[in-house]
Design brief:
Number of strands: 5
Radius of gyration: 34 Å
Order of helices and strands: HHHHHHHEEEEEHHHHHHHHH
Structural class: mainly alpha
Mean pLDDT: 81
Helix content: 55-70%
Strand content: under 5%
Largest sheet: 3 strands, antiparallel
């Protein structure tokens, strides 16, 4: 079938798939991306990158953490040293909360206690956490969207292997001719230039929007007969009455064949890159570690995952998405995780809250006359882990890894700082006591 006959053809095969627009990263996203690229050759690269990013960030803000925790521990030790006086005040003003608060403030001022001393660094740390949370949420959407778009490129590139182009060879393997609209919604045969990454370009290097493909049936018959004979697999033979089939029947046979290789190419891209985004039991760290999520989601879940960053995603993309992920049926039915990171995030946060409460025991018990502050802090000890669990449940496993590493780092630094401050405080207290004793002894000698 020559080009002249193609012009009179009324049938096109539709094997093109649509990519979805990209997500713009902020500067933190670029930092995260840079770190991931550094470790991209390692298995579990994303998890490793998240750990490196978290350690770097925590090290950068470590001076703030040290200052905050030292202040908190010192204030706690000061409060403990005031316990006898404050317990007396609690008994004395048990029925007068306002007077108790006033007397406590006076006592704290006399002893140099400032409950707000550690607040500013803590606020800064909270702001950093929220900024990083937003960046991770955005990057997870960016990563999922980029992976899908790369799969569409692999799919399209496999199709383009059969397309006749001006700068390509025109052997028997090139049996498709791209169709573009002529401005009047009429597709016409067009031979674009071959580009990179599964794109077809015009003479100026601009990407061409393909409307569909015309088929050179004679070239296809020649190509497919040779392909079937050379294949080691059980490939259906070309129908004996090929020449008598209608265009619709021929196009169906051609499109089925072209889709086989395109689907395989898209799946191969995913499988090749899976070691980077997987981690032990987790299929894709950019989705939650949950049995409610699949390693490769259906279109509805995929759309809800990325539309916060990419905007509203039209349901017209569903056909393309299903086609690109056609050969990933196993991954579509595989749990993405088993709630392991969610449990760890909750557990470590609970441990951190418990240690923090123990270190602030005196402040919790004595800051209010009726012990209400202690009850409030106990409630917070339960609420914070639940909040972290919710974050882990709805957001990516990568963010759960960040929260776990962040919490463990904080736990270790808190234990070290608390121990160091306690030792230093005890030494200072001993020195003050010795100086008091020496002063008394000196006064006795003078008498």
């Amino acid at each position: 079938m020559g080009l002249a006959n193609l012009l009179t053809s009324s049938e096109l095969i539709q094997v093109a798939v649509d990519g979805i627009g990209t997500v713009d990263l902020n500067w933190i996203g670029f930092v995260i991306s840079w770190i991931f690229n550094l470790v991209s050759d390692f298995p579990g690269a994303i998890a490793v990158g998240v750990i490196i990013f978290t350690l770097m960030l925590k090290t950068i803000v470590l001076p703030l953490d040290i200052y905050s925790r030292v202040k908190m521990k010192k204030q706690s030790l000061l409060m403990e040293s005031m316990r006898p006086e404050m317990e007396k005040l609690q008994k004395q003003y048990a029925n007068d909360k306002n007077m108790y608060s006033q007397k406590v403030l006076e006592l704290q001022k006399e002893n140099g206690y400032n409950p707000l001393g550690a607040c500013l660094p803590s606020i800064v740390s909270l702001v950093i956490f929220m900024v990083v949370f937003s960046a991770f949420s955005q990057y997870s959407q960016y990563a999922n969207l980029t992976a899908y778009n790369e799969m569409t490129k692999s799919y399209s590139k496999a199709v383009y292997e059969y397309v006749q182009t001006e700068d390509g060879e025109n052997g028997d393997g090139y049996f498709l001719i791209a169709a573009v609209e002529d401005g009047l919604n009429n597709p016409k045969p067009y031979k674009p230039f071959a580009g990179e990454n599964g794109k077809l370009l015009d003479a100026e290097g601009n990407e061409v929007d393909i409307y569909g493909y015309y088929v050179d049936y004679d070239k296809f018959a020649s190509f497919y007969t040779a392909y079937a004979q050379a294949s080691e697999e059980d490939v259906p033979a070309l129908p004996d009455d090929w020449a008598e089939l209608s265009e619709e029947q021929k196009n169906l046979f051609v499109s089925d064949f072209v889709r086989l290789g395109a689907r395989e190419a898209a799946a191969n891209y995913y499988i090749k890159n899976k070691p980077k985004t997987s981690l032990l039991w987790i299929g894709n760290v950019w989705y939650p570690d949950s049995m409610l999520n699949k390693e490769v989601p259906d279109f509805s879940n995929f759309r809800s995952t990325i539309q916060r960053a990419a905007g509203s995603i039209d349901t017209n993309y569903e056909e393309s998405y299903n086609e690109v992920t056609f050969n990933l049926s196993k991954q579509k039915s595989t749990y993405n995780g088993y709630f392991v990171l969610i449990v760890l995030a909750i557990g470590f946060m609970f441990l951190q809250q418990f240690i923090t409460m123990r270190s602030q025991k005196a402040a919790n018990e004595l800051s209010s006359v009726d012990g209400q502050a202690a009850a409030t802090n106990k409630m917070m000890m339960v609420m914070m882990p639940i909040i972290f669990g919710i974050f882990s449940f709805f957001y990516s496993a990568a963010f759960s890894i960040y929260m776990i590493v962040n919490t463990v780092y904080s736990l270790i630094s808190t234990l070290i700082i608390n121990k160091a401050v306690s030792v230093r405080f005890e030494k200072d207290s001993d020195k003050k006591e010795i100086e008091k004793l020496r002063g008394r002894a000196g006064r006795k000698r003078l008498k």
